[in-house]
Amino acid sequence: MPALNEIAALRSETPGCAHHIHLNNAGASLVPRPVLEAMQNYLTEESLHGGYETFAAHAGAIAGFYDAMAKLLHTNPRNIAFAGSATDAYARALSAIPFEAGDVLLTTDDDYVSNQIAFLSLQNKLKIRVLRAAKLPEGGVDPQSVKELMEKHRPKLVAVTHVPTNSGLVQDVEAVGRLCREREVWYLVDACQSAGQMPLDMAEIGCDFLSGTMRKWLRGPRGAGFLFVSDRVLEAGLEPLLPDMAGAVWVENDRYLPMDDARRFEFWEKPFALLVGSGAAVKYALDLGLGGIERQVTALAEHTRQQLSALAGVLVLDRGSRRCGIVTAFFEGKKPADLKKALDGAGINTGFGATVNALIDFKEKGVDWALRLSPHYYNTHAEIDRAVEVLAKVS
User: Fold this and answer.
1) What distance in Å separates the CA atoms of residue 243 and residue 229, rounded to the nearest whole number?
2) Count of other CB atoms within 10 angstroms of residue 86
3) Given this structure, which CATH class describes domain 7-28+289-392?
């Protein structure tokens, strides 16, 4: 396959590049041809030979997903579960925490909206308490605040989103992980926007669960995600609220045994074409190298910020001492619909966020919407410059 510096070759392996300037990789990336072909071939075989028969014939490719994902996360295949999405994986992990009334769940202002809603649902239904740690002056969760709240409230779970969907911020999940390990507190990390964009090492992060999706920076299919499950979780016997026969064995009329690995967090029915495609996507990223991917993505994002900052009336919203491939900006006096119309007309894919997606963050920044540009390694400076040129002409 091409190397990271062979941009033309990488773009030729990405059919969508011929049709759009795709700067919406934080939403869903363009799938490379090897991933597309892996899924198409699997579906074709299913149509010819049957679902169960195709599954049996592709046992090696299916196992390859777990091997590749384990390599990506620097862990073991037994610690990997496939899921239908990042939210699916996250919910299964969250359901395994043995909450009781009065327990504390400690999180951050910048955690993903779906996670925040899930926390509040648990607060309503199980009578737990949801607390949020303070932020650093430059943005991102303050580990000292986490430490103080942990010492005061002894939370049952700490949950942190690594990269918020609404900004280029990268939160210090490693520092929070050290605090959780020292106090033996369960730790859940949302890596939906970081997996595939930067290296992830489960030992360095120190989490008990880490969830992610395939459709964003990993350039895999929609409807596919993953969950890392630590040995500590498995040894403690934690399991999802509603396992099925993939996650447990029915051994007596009134008793079942959970699987001894992360499969206890899986369901029996899976979209195996998407699973095989996910394995191909992870292998594609591994072959390119996550360190190089991060450097290229970060450089493109910084170029985007510089170009946007040069426009009159544009406020680049990204904060944090470490920033990544998500760029957000507010255009004073402009309407999101007008910007979107101009970008769509030029064949440029981007994303937009509203207050409901980042309630706390947008209120603090004094905005009620933001344009989100998220370049990947197959994008070019010329594509970014073209997008900024179109935005500059919106009246």
Assistant:
1) 15
2) 26
3) alpha beta
For the chain of 395 residues, list the mean pLDDT of each consecutive stretch of 10: 92 97 98 98 98 97 98 98 98 98 98 97 98 96 98 98 94 98 98 98 98 98 98 98 97 98 97 98 98 98 98 95 96 96 98 92 94 98 98 90
Question: Which residues, 6 or more positions from 160, have their beta carbon under 8 angstroms from its beta carbon?
Answer: 107, 108, 111, 141, 171, 173, 176, 187, 188, 189, 190
Copy the structure tokens of residue 244: 């099925």
Q: What does the pLDDT read at residue 1?
A: 77
Residue ranges, CATH 3.40.640.10, the chain: 35-287
Does the reported pTM lie above 0.90? yes
Closest CA to 308 of 326, 335, 294: 326
DSSP E strands in the chain: the ranges are: 21-22, 80-83, 104-108, 129-133, 157-161, 186-190, 209-213, 225-229, 248-252, 255-258, 314-316, 327-331, 348-349, 351-354, 369-373
How far, in Å, CA of 197 to CA of 44, rounded? 31
CA distance 393 to 259: 58
Residue type (1 letter), 300: L
- Where do you find CATH 3.90.1150.10 in the chain? 7-28+289-392
Of all residues in the chain, what percent are helix, strand and coil, respectively (each to 5)?
Answer: 45, 20, 35
- CA–CA separation, 275 and 215 (whole Å): 12
Pick the CATH number of 35-287 from 3.60.10.10, 3.90.580.10, 3.40.640.10, 3.30.365.10: 3.40.640.10
- CA 189 vs CA 180, 196, 212, 274, 317: distances in Å: 12, 15, 9, 23, 23
Angle formed at CA 67 by CA 64 and CA 73, multiple of 5 degrees: 135
Cα three-residue angle 367-368-374, rounded to 5 degrees: 85
Cα distance between residue 68 and residue 81, in whole Å? 12
